[in-house]
């Protein structure tokens, strides 16, 4: 709506109507009964998709709060890794894996995590009819990245991708997300990166919501008890899909920062209620109340999230060093005990 109200955007959009036939999303994509305004919106978004880098620089603040996941696939295009690139990147000596990954959905090698890739129920795959694609995506990824293999939290991410695109493309996007969005570190067997994220989130909590932080500590309500799933599934297990996909959309844009922001926004919204509850009451509140607070107004959550104070440099440089020092000290103590 903000883009539509921008006269410069509308002028550039209207001027592009003559060339809209070459757009990825043109007026011909819309049904014949669309109003002129809806047609204009399709053309505008088609222009945004085709000239993504330019629009991202010009309208960065507006594009951070996109209205829905309609253009999810197009926004994935800049990070799609073609199967051929994955194929070429494998060691030349590993000819069997190189050959089988040309068609990742039917890999011939035995998956090292095959016993884990059974139907895990509705909690792990958003739609049961997608389970076949879900299974083969994980089987293929287990062959690409044997160290990480299968982690149940990543199943939700794969499930969402499969709801948006064919399984080959979902596989490519998933590989790229794992490699370049910190997800691979989160899903390693040691889950050391998850510990770092929890440590960084606790710092934000202590700094911005000290009263709530004291209450959590007094009730022995650990951050990992409610925030681990936020980082591992990007809120896909917390919110219904219409809200969760909004968060995931922004995650595609700027990475894990949005998880910290949304998490802090949730605590800000609910601080008054949480400080009145004991440990069991808070657990129930996180499970039953928080997930449905923004079903009818996800904008409220997203806008509040972008008001959260977040310093990327401090989170990366200072807090990462502090956490590394703490873990090294713990390791030394364990060695002494042994």
UniProtKB/TrEMBL annotation:
<feature type="compositionally biased region" description="Low complexity">
    <location>
        <begin position="10"/>
        <end position="28"/>
    </location>
</feature>
<dbReference type="GO" id="GO:0005096">
    <property type="term" value="F:GTPase activator activity"/>
</dbReference>
<dbReference type="GO" id="GO:0031267">
    <property type="term" value="F:small GTPase binding"/>
</dbReference>
<keyword id="KW-0175">Coiled coil</keyword>
<protein>
    <submittedName>
        <fullName>EVI5L protein</fullName>
    </submittedName>
</protein>
<feature type="domain" description="Rab-GAP TBC">
    <location>
        <begin position="1"/>
        <end position="255"/>
    </location>
</feature>
<feature type="region of interest" description="Disordered">
    <location>
        <begin position="1"/>
        <end position="28"/>
    </location>
</feature>
<dbReference type="Pfam" id="PF23436">
    <property type="entry name" value="RabGap-TBC_2"/>
</dbReference>
<dbReference type="InterPro" id="IPR000195">
    <property type="entry name" value="Rab-GAP-TBC_dom"/>
</dbReference>
<dbReference type="InterPro" id="IPR035969">
    <property type="entry name" value="Rab-GAP_TBC_sf"/>
</dbReference>
<dbReference type="InterPro" id="IPR050302">
    <property type="entry name" value="Rab_GAP_TBC_domain"/>
</dbReference>
């Amino acid at each position: 709506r903000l883009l539509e109200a921008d006269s410069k955007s509308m002028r550039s959009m209207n001027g592009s109507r003559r060339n809209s036939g070459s757009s990825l999303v043109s007026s011909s994509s819309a049904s014949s009964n669309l109003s002129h305004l809806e047609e204009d919106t399709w053309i505008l978004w088609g222009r945004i998709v085709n000239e993504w880098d330019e629009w991202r620089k010009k309208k960065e603040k507006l594009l951070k709060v996109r209205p829905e996941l309609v253009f999810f696939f197009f926004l994935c295009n800049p990070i799609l890794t073609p199967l051929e690139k994955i194929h070429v990147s494998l060691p030349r000596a590993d000819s069997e894996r190189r050959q089988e990954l040309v068609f990742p959905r039917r890999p011939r090698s035995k998956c090292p995590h095959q016993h884990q890739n059974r139907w895990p129920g509705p909690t792990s795959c958003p739609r049961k009819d997608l389970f076949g694609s879900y299974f083969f995506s994980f089987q293929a990824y287990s062959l690409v990245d044997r160290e990480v293999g299968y982690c149940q939290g990543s199943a939700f991410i794969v499930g969402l991708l499969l709801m948006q695109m064919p399984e080959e493309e979902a596989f490519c996007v998933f590989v790229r997300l794992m490699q370049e969005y910190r997800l691979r570190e989160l899903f390693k067997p040691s889950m050391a990166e998850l510990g770092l994220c929890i440590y960084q989130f606790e710092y934000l909590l202590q700094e911005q919501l000290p009263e709530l932080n004291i209450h959590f500590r007094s009730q022995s309500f650990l951050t990992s008890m409610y925030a681990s799933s936020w980082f591992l599934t990007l809120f896909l297990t917390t919110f219904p899909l219409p809200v969760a996909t909004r968060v995931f959309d922004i995650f595609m844009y700027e990475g894990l920062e949005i998880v910290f922001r949304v998490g802090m926004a949730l605590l800000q919204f609910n601080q008054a209620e949480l400080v009145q509850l004991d440990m069991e009451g808070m657990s129930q509140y996180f499970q039953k109340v928080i997930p449905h607070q923004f079903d009818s107004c996800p904008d409220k959550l997203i806008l509040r999230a972008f008001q959260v104070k977040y310093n990327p440099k401090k989170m990366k440089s200072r807090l990462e060093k502090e956490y590394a020092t703490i873990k090294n000290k713990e390791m030394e103590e364990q060695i002494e005990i042994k």
